Hints:
40 residues; two-stranded antiparallel ribbon
Amino acid sequence: MIQGIAPHTFDNSYKPLLPDENSFFILFKGREVVIAEKKQ
C-alpha cells in the first residue's frame, strides 16, 4: 500500500537499466503487438 512506503513518497520516474537474463521485450506499433518466446 502506498501509505506503507517510507518516507511516504511515491516515485515512478523512469530509470534506464541494462537488461538481464530475466528481462523481456515488448514491441508494439499502434494496436499491434509482437510477442515471441525463445527457449534455450
